[in-house]
Amino acid sequence: MGYPEKYAMRHNHRITPILKNSDREVEWEFTAPRQGAYQFDLKLETMDDNKTPYLALSLRRDELTNPFGPVRKIVKLSSGLKSYTFYLPLDKGLNRGTISLLNTGPEPWKPFQASAIFPIVLKKMVVSIPEHRATIAPDFILIPVTNHCNYSCVMCSHGVPEKKPSLSHFPEPLAGRFINALNRSTTSCHVALTGEGEPLISPLFFRIVNDVTNPLVKFHFATNGSLLNDRNNKWIVKSPFSHVNVSLDAATPNVYRKIRNAPFKPVIQNLEQLSDAIKASGRSDLRLIINMTLMSENQNEVPAFIELAGRLNAGVTVNYLNDYNYFHDWLVERPEFRFDYKEQILVHNETLETTVTGYQKLARDAGVPFMIDEVMRPLLGRSPGGKLVRPSNELTNDPPISGCPYLWTGDWRGTFVLHSGGELGACCLQQPLGKVIDSLPLEEAIDKVWNGTIARQTRADILAGKIPEPCSGSNCLFVALQRLWNEKFYTVDSERSRID
Ligand code: SF4
């Protein structure tokens, strides 16, 4: 069976969203026919370029279900009648956001009243499902800054002697090119300095943050929290970070020790200090998040974890364990805990779904931002055909993989990865789309891969509902839902996935 006619027709459907002017910003509203990346084309007329302000297109998300806050794309304006293209990852249904002008001053960026700066006229705004080719560079980028670590958590390769990675930092020459590219950027960039290690161990981590002076670039990172000492916390609140994501996995010393093989109390003291430092700084654009990888051993700790987050004025993200064959012979035996990876993986069932809904309600009632982040590590089950799928009662006519936005744009859950060997992937689970060459400035080298044949074919496949080759080994949410969809409903129409 082919694709529903409705879906095929929507590829070229262009829709003008509802716009509403307020004092300081233009509000937009758009009902997306499906989840995925959308292209926003804005036509603006500006009369004076002396002040070189910036324009921000923001997507508002429910603060209580998204600890990371809104997704915001910023571009430097030039004078005259100009068109600007942005990509946003929208949910199916109603999406809301704003268009505003920003100053370039210290944090947080304050919206300007447009008329107070110079005349600017929004001539037109059109939203459409994007094409195979992305015209602008990726704006959420992950740099695996180091794989050195001072911890040995049971579910990480640092915790298993025979799986320990060979230790290295991200290469200096590539880091230098990256810093220069970020300083030249005229569009906003969110950079995750996170890899299979503890970023605060790496001198490069501090160098990248200190040497990037472009106000369009913001950083975030995941850490085990052990090195969030007074000196580092003071530096963090003065630096352009948007959030600090601390992996805790437990709300009690006993379970923390079992999973992370370290004492709980010093890390909690560090977090209390960081929370106080953020409060004292007055910054509303810097968030503290604590995260938990959910498994059999710690699933009962979620209510206490929410309470801990409330005390720390932090948001919570929860992920599930990875489910790949690679993890099925994974065993860590310690005096206090025997961790058998495959037995700890939670499997989708109705009871667990009800429990998780209960956690979401608990967090909402407590006013704690709480997100179960299933994009990269969904809760899986087996289909009747024996495939690893994400069971769902909500499959629609749209092929689920067409909802993956990451070949066009990132968000807090999915980022473009520049691996230490120069390979590039749209997310951390995807096989590389290519490798940057040395002879070009890094942004041009990235663009060659980002808009190259493999990337365009991958986009074409995703829009057509076909699992692309670079994503075929992944168990991400989109691939796992697509496997279920393929078994239940349709076969893939190969004609629709050919690139021009
Ligand atoms: S593996 Fe492919 S489909 Fe899955 S999140 Fe990454 S880019 Fe999207």
Summarize the structure in words.
Keywords: 4Fe-4S, Iron, Iron-sulfur, Metal-binding, S-adenosyl-L-methionine. With 500 residues, this protein is an alpha/beta fold. It has a domain at 5-128: Jelly Rolls, CATH 2.60.120. It is built from 13 helices and 24 strands. The protein has helices spanning 5-9, 114-117, 172-184, 203-211, 230-238, 253-260, 265-281, 302-312, 341-344, 350-366, 442-450, 453-464, 477-488, and strands at residues 14-15, 18-21, 25-32, 36-46, 54-60, 71-76, 80-90, 93-102, 111-112, 120-128, 140-143, 189-193, 217-223, 241-247, 287-294, 315-320, 331-334, 337-340, 370-372, 381-382, 388-389, 416-418, 423-425, 434-435. β17 (331-334) and β18 form a beta hairpin. α5 (230-238) runs parallel beside α7 and α8 (302-312) runs parallel beside α10 (350-366).
What would you say the CATH architecture of the domain at 5-128 is? Sandwich
Question: Residue share in helices?
Answer: 25-40%
> What is the molecular shape?
globular
**Main sheet strand line-up:** 19-16-15-14-13-12-11-22-23-24
Counting DSSP E segments of at least 2 residues, the number of strands comes to 24
CATH class of the domain at 5-128: Mainly Beta
Q: From the helix content, strand content and strand pairing, which structural class follows?
A: alpha/beta
Q: What's the story with the biggest beta sheet?
A: 10 strands, mixed
The averaged pLDDT comes out at 87
For this structure, the CATH topology of the domain at 5-128 is Jelly Rolls
CATH homologous superfamily placement of the domain at 5-128: Galactose-binding domain-like
Radius of gyration: 23 Å
What are the distinct ligands in this entry? iron/sulfur cluster
Count the DSSP helices: 13
Q: Which ranges are low-confidence, i.e. pLDDT below 50, for 5 or more consecutive residues? A: 1-16, 105-118, 491-500
Determine the N-to-C terminus distance. 23 Å
Task: Quote the beta fraction.
Answer: 25-35%
InterPro entries: AdoMet-like_SPASM_containing, Aldolase_TIM, Radical_SAM_PqqE_MftC-like, rSAM, rSAM_sf
Cofactor: [4Fe-4S] cluster
Keywords: 4Fe-4S, Iron, Iron-sulfur, Metal-binding, S-adenosyl-L-methionine
GO molecular function: catalytic activity; iron-sulfur cluster binding; metal ion binding
